[in-house]
Amino acid sequence: MDARPSAPERSRPRKSERDLKAERAAALARRQAAAVGAVHGIDHLVCACGTERYGIPLAAVAQVLPMRPSTPMPGAVPALLGLIALSGRIVGVLGLARALGRPEPPDAELGAGHLVVLRAAQAQPVALAVDRVLGIAVAPGPSAAGATAEADPAGLGNAAASGYAPASARDGRPDFVVVDLPRLLRRVLP
Question: Distance between CA atoms of 25 and 36, rounded to whole angstroms?
Fold first, then answer.
């Protein structure tokens, strides 16, 4: 066997090591930019309420706790399941399914599920009661909200479920509905 390069290989100019490194760096930068662009969005805590999945912006979540008994409030809005004491504060517990006007599963066990405690953006501390917390998923940015203020100016109806985040083929997570927390809380809190 002859170890000499063929004629086409000899006629091709060799790139310097510096040029090769620059090309590789540019290719890696393009690949990283594509990967970052693919996952760009807002993190959501995905929760199940019955057979439906809802995403709550992760920035609005303070903590997740196992469900605990709550004290009912006579005359309260139907979405308010009751009150709990948490770290020396009285926290209102809202049923997420009820607050969204969705049916509650008939086989829901008392005391089963999770409480999603929200950050103190409102005067009254609030926790959302959900059947199960499934995990964290990324949804597209503000454009995922879908519903605009003009679509539901009075904040009535089901506009608090403000958008739809399709499943990502990469991580295999199912679709979920994005919840507009300020609109939801305006509807159920005084």
Answer: 16
